[in-house]
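B., you asked whether I could sanity-check this one before it goes into the benchmark set. Here's the sequence:
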Amino acid sequence: MPIYEYRCGACGFQKEFLQRVSDAPLTDCPECGKHTLNKMVTAAGFQLKGSGWYATDFKDKGSAKPKPDAAKSADTAKKDESKAEAACGAGACPACN
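And here's what the prediction gave me:
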């Protein structure tokens, strides 16, 4: 059942009520007794629990990326150096000209 938040237009009393979707909106203020209680537009509050599409598919999306291994970083650096050495002497850098 959803939780609806109401506020009285006369006295400003505000409270959340647990109601069925099919229930009629409340109109009588429990604080002052006037018929000025209005349902507020608020964000839905719910939590998905258990194993299912939320926990398995969307829970950790966008989190921090895993750190690369040190060995992979060293291999990548060696490849970058070899590419730089191959370019040198071919007239591609200012030192070769």
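One thing to flag: The mean pLDDT is 73. Otherwise nothing jumped out at me.
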